[in-house]
Write a structure and sequence with these properties.
The protein is α/β, with parallel strands linked by helices. The protein folds into 3 domains: about 325 residues, Rossmann fold (3-Layer(aba) Sandwich), CATH 3.40.50; about 120 residues, Domain 2, N(10)-formyltetrahydrofolate synthetase (2-Layer Sandwich), CATH 3.30.1510.10; about 80 residues, Formyltetrahydrofolate synthetase, domain 3 (Roll), CATH 3.10.410.10. It is built from 19 helices and 26 strands. β25 and β26 form a beta hairpin. The N terminus is likely disordered.
Length: about 575
């Protein structure tokens, strides 16, 4: 059975995600919009089943009361997948069934993973977004707009070099690469400008995947078209021979980039399988960026429904921390609760007793009843609960249940939650949709009724190094940080250039709370190595690279692209 297919543990007759989505009867989008109190003039149709929301909604919705704000996070990811997106959708469907008017807000998936090994990200089973094909493939073209704007800036950098380099840009210190929304390891490091003199200046550069573009992140964090334009102008493409930053504004590129992105700033309206509203917007890389959907979508949703359910990438150590410390600073929204998704099999994986690899069959022992294996991995869940509590946010543990799980294994999780005084629920939304999420919905309803005591982890007047160390010690559990000489020099330069008041993001492995992907559970007795530091000034943060980060994935030996096709009727097959 596949490690990346949540239906893998369901009975053989259970339909695939694509089969479920294809059989769904979708509500007219005007009805979906009306459920949020929006009129037909508030939406811009992109075909029959997808629309964009007018930016003027921020102004017209301003007088409405603000709803509750729930973020869905998880334990440390395993190759099995914990089901954050499926849980977020299922929770929204469950909340609707108990009388709420929820809006689920999610990221748009990159086509790189869709055609690679991970597959799509529309949720799964009977808790997914539709139309599933459009969600995973192109949607309204926002990713292409990001790539076009990003690559326009790259072209203008090289054009500037070709015509004399008036800004004295150091060719050895150009940080702006190119992007494409395809997994392609051959483009990680390339040489451009070869050929005749008229073909440009030869230099070494490379490609990242579009989700890793700073343009994607700043689109995620922009609060208006004016703010988007301002952020684009602040993008640093490299440094002069004297060490001064060179920006997109100086190159004269920011205005044209804003024109390419003005429609992409509008959130996309889709729906859940049960006809509830879903906003899908942006898709920044989780390893080096925020890993969240957009501020713009959240600001609209928070006044269009009484509960907003959004998602933060990877575990609470990465996704939730960035959601709290970066996204919430920009949006001004304070979360009322955080749902921590866990599964029995993922906790067993964190025991370290099983050899689990993507694309390979699950070990038979993993599916056998063994509460002891769950108990051995439970420290990871405990740590993620503590991370959420550190921010003053009420945690709720969602046990994403599979038919292969056993009640005795759930009891281990319940015992931990009871000991920590944390709410929990077993949710079967994958197989039963909103009905399967009723227990979780009721528990979340209780949690959001409590007053929130949310606060940030650090203040912006702390030095960049202090911010990095605070995250490392208080969130990851490190004993301290070890900054390389190159990283220390970069931090000093960033402080000198005025970037010291920016928040920080730590780029590290998502497979462990530590910086070592082989250390499972809740590691202690280690230090965080800060190898390199980079500035995403347009997005508005500095990120520390702590490990070997790949911003351009490669395809597997047999990627999903080999299985995706169309049949004689023109219908897509093989999409997962």
């Amino acid at each position: 059975m596949s490690l990346n297919d949540e239906s893998a543990s369901t009975p053989a007759a259970f339909p695939s995600d694509l089969e479920i989505a294809s059989a769904a009867t979708l509500r007219p989008l005007t009805e979906v919009a009306a459920s949020m109190g929006l009129s037909e003039s508030d939406i811009e149709p992109y075909g029959r089943d997808v629309a964009k929301l007018d930016l003027d909604l921020l102004r017209t919705l301003a007088g409405r009361p603000q709803g509750r704000y729930v973020v869905v996070t998880a334990i440390t990811p395993t190759p099995l997948g914990e089901g954050k997106t499926t849980t977020a959708v299922g929770l929204a469907q469950g909340m609707a069934k108990i009388g709420h008017t929820p809006v689920v807000v999610l990221r748009q998936p990159s086509m790189g993973p869709t055609f690679g090994i991970k597959g799509g990200a529309a949720g799964g089973g009977y808790s997914q977004l539709v139309p599933m094909e459009r969600f995973n493939l192109h949607l309204t073209g926002d990713f292409h707009a990001v790539a076009a704007a990003h690559n326009l800036l790259a072209a203008m950098v090289d054009n500037h070099l070709h015509f004399g380099n008036e800004l004295d840009l150091d060719e050895r210190n150009i940080t702006w690469r190119r992007v494409i929304d395809v997994n392609d390891r051959s483009l990680r490091d390339i040489v451009i400008g070869l050929g005749a003199r008229i073909d440009g200046v030869p230099r070494q550069t490379g490609f990242d995947i579009t989700a890793a573009s700073e343009v994607m992140v700043l689109l995620t964090l922009a609060t208006s078209l004016t703010d988007l334009r301002r952020r684009l102008g602040r993008i640093v493409v490299g440094y002069t021979t004297q060490g001064e930053a060179v920006t997109a504004e100086q190159l004269g590129a920011a205005g044209a980039m804003a024109v390419l992105l003005k429609d992409a700033l509008k959130p996309n309206l889709l729906q859940t399988l049960e006809g509830g509203p879903a906003l899908v917007h942006c898709g920044p890389f989780g390893n080096i960026a925020t890993g969240t959907s957009s501020v713009m979508a959240d600001l609209m949703a928070i006044r269009a429904g009484d509960t907003v359910i959004t998602e933060a990438g990877f575990g609470a150590d990465m996704g939730a921390e960035r959601f709290f410390d970066v996204k919430c600073r920009v949006s001004g929204l304070a979360p009322d609760a955080a749902v921590i998704v866990t599964t029995v099999r993922a906790l067993k994986a964190h025991s370290g007793r099983f050899d689990i690899k993507p694309g390979r069959p699950l070990p038979a022992e993993l599916l056998a009843e063994n509460p002891g294996d769950v108990a051995a991995g439970i420290p990871n869940l405990r740590k993620h609960i503590q991370i959420v509590q550190r921010f003053g946010v009420t945690p709720v543990v969602a046990i994403n249940a599979f038919p292969t799980d056993f009640a005795s294994e759930f009891d281990v999780i319940r015992a931990l939650c009871d000991k920590m005084g944390v709410r929990y629920a077993v949710s079967r939304h994958f197989t039963d949709g909103g009905d399967g999420a009723l227990e979780l919905a009721r528990v979340v309803d209780e949690a959001i009724a409590e007053p929130s005591d949310f606060d940030f982890l650090y203040t912006l007047d702390m030095s960049l190094a202090q911010k990095i160390e605070t995250i490392a010690t208080e969130i990851y559990g490190a004993d301290g940080i070890d900054i390389s000489p190159a990283a220390a020099a970069a931090l000093a330069d960033y402080e000198r250039l005025g970037f010291g008041t920016l928040p920080v993001v730590i780029a590290k492995t998502h497979l462990s709370i530590s910086s070592d992907p082989t250390r499972l559970g809740a590691p202690t007795g280690w230090r965080l190595p800060v190898r390199e530091v980079r500035a995403s000034v347009g997005a508005g943060y500095v990120y520390a690279i702590c490990g070997d980060m790949r911003t351009m994935p490669g395809l597997s030996r047999h990627p999903n692209a080999e299985r995706i096709d169309i049949d004689e009727s023109g219908r897509t097959v093989g999409l997962s």
